[in-house]
Fold this sequence. Notes:
mainly alpha, signal, Tetratricopeptide repeat protein, 3 strands, 3 domains, DUF6624, three-stranded mixed β-sheet
Amino acid sequence: MAPKSCLKNPLFLLCLLTISAFETAAQNTISNADSTFYRQKIAELDSALAINGIGNSRVYNLAAYHSLLGEKQASISYLQMAVDNGLIILNANVDPDLENARTAEEWPAIRKKIIGNWYKYYPFGDAHYALELIKMRDNYLRKREQVEKDKEKYGDESDEYWMTIKETRRIATENGEKLDSLINLHGWPRQNFVGQAQTRAAAVVMIYSDVDIQKKYINEIEKAVEYNEIEGRYLAIIRDKILISDGEKQLYGTQYLYNDSTEMMEIAPIENEIDLDKRRIELGLDSMDVYLEGLNVIRK
């Protein structure tokens, strides 16, 4: 369905209505529940688009939902709208939700505009480096989501669950090694070189990397927080992981340990716990009591 705000544009409407038989068949491969959800979100976003106008997330998500429904041309039309309005949607190049859209014959031209728009904001940047950071982060996070799905479906003692856990750890290790290589080649991914979202993506990859790599780049993480390129929570998690791996007490209370006796997760030992909330607040974190609300974790 065409967004109301675009009905006055006959060329745009024509694009939206040009849905091939292949796309209709592709739609049949998704579940009815997913299809209903995607249609609902499209309706909500169409309304928001008509009221509030074009925005990165609105147009991008409309493109993604149409792509997931197999409606390639509708998805492409929203991507075209995004690039024509100069929006920054670099991750469209690697987002699996847009895999269908990227098979359209219009995609190469749109991709060229996406890269061009990105370089207008980051003229001295490296789009290839930025895309690699996005891919590493998203590959890992998708596998983590699969861990939870397998746990719910098969149970946490199943072979399927533990195979996914093993694969998740493998991806984390490989990501860390690849990030290390990229940093050696291009330097630390500063915001003005790869973009804010990509600098954050590097921090996410670093969180799940092996501790040796975390130790190697902890100073860069500190600088990124100091320069307001990433949030302090990234530093808190990485710093605590390093301390726990070295057999020391953590500083920010971000790490848990499993207690075999109680069969519960417990907060790992904390250095100078009296000043814990002070340290957390300095990095922009909630107090420990607020943080633990709703979590099934024991605080001694």
